[in-house]
Design goal:
Layout (H helix, E strand, L loop, with lengths): L6 H13 L4 E5 L3 E2 L11 H14 L5 E5 L4 E5 L1 H9 L4 E7 L3 H14 L5 H15 L3 H8 L3 H9 L5 H8 L5 H7 L5 H14 L3 H20 L6 H14 L3 E6 L2 E6 L4 H11 L4
Helix pairs in contact: 2-3, 4-5, 5-7, 6-7, 9-11
Keywords: Chromosome partition, DNA-binding
Organism: Brevibacillus laterosporus
Family: Belongs to the ParB family.
């Protein structure tokens, strides 16, 4: 559950702006550099275009926040408005000039986006990581700063353990944060990817994925407890089949005969395996 914004940052964002609200200056857009600590990487083109059209008619109602830099100004808050102003063909934008440290700018950029729910889970996780690294915050301190619960911060940051391909699925909303978290205990990156693809293809719930991952773990633990008597080639084939089907597979051989056991955990899971085997009803 989200908490209220930390007192220090709340004052930074609101009180100071109100106090200096009359100190608005028009600045050339070409003199404003982007915020180097901006956590948001994706800006929806259609929404930007719509904002640009609105700016053409009504202008920029809320000034941008900048600080002075060696050459011109550095943006603190208002990147969407700045981008939309460029699309609208504006040469100048209204700004309020502030004196902020790098740490304050990092925090403000994150808070601005969190308040507007602009960040996808991966952008949020990376922003938390940078803040902790740059400011030496603990997760508890960071949670208080950004007005989130500590478990929320912990769970979001765990997504950074995932392979880049799966991070991209989360960033584009192809895979939910709940599904992504369920994949973290899977140690094999190839198997993580296969399971992620199965989730998307068969529209698994988070519970279905968690159960599949749990059964895979149980299967591995059971094998660890058994005496290693299988020939190496069969162990290798078991691993390859497990990766292919995304579930537990055992090859049991006696003399010249044997059998292959493929585990499934629901009717949907069975259908998924049959589809892989290209077996129709």
């Amino acid at each position: 559950m989200s908490k209220r914004l930390g007192k220090g940052l709340g004052a930074l964002i609101t009180s100071n702006l109100i106090e200096e609200s009359e100190q608005v200056t028009d600045v050339e857009i070409s003199e404003i550099r982007p915020n180097p600590y901006q956590p948001r990487k994706e800006f929806e083109p259609t929404a930007l275009q719509e904002l640009g059209e609105s700016i053409k008619i009504h202008g920029i109602i809320q000034p941008l926040i900048v600080r002075k830099s060696i050459k011109g100004y550095e943006l603190v808050a208002g990147e969407r408005r700045l981008r939309a102003a460029k699309l609208a063909g504006l040469k100048k934008v209204p700004v309020v000039i502030k004196s902020y440290t790098d740490q304050q700018i990092m925090e403000l950029a994150l808070i601005e986006n969190l308040q507007r729910e602009n960040l996808n889970p991966m952008e949020e996780a990376e922003a938390y990581f940078k803040l902790m690294e740059h400011c030496s915050y603990t997760q508890e301190e960071l949670a208080q700063k950004v007005g989130k619960s500590r478990p929320h911060v912990t769970n979001i940051m765990r997504l950074l353990q995932l392979p880049d391909k799966i991070k991209e699925l989360v960033a584009t909303s192809s895979l939910s944060m709940g599904h992504a978290r369920a994949l973290i205990p899977v140690e094999n990156a190839d198997l993580q990817w296969k399971l992620a693809c199965e989730v998307i293809r068969y529209e698994w719930t988070v519970r279905q994925l968690e159960e599949t991952v749990k059964q895979l773990h149980v299967s591995r633990e059971t094998k660890k407890k058994k005496p290693v008597t299988k020939e190496k080639v069969y162990v290798q084939w078991e691993q390859r089949l497990q990766n292919r089907f995304g579930t537990g597979v055992q090859i049991n051989k006696t003399n010249k005969k044997g059998k292959i056991e493929i585990e499934f955990y629901s009717d949907d899971d069975l259908q998924r395996i049959l589809d892989i085997l290209q077996i129709e009803e």
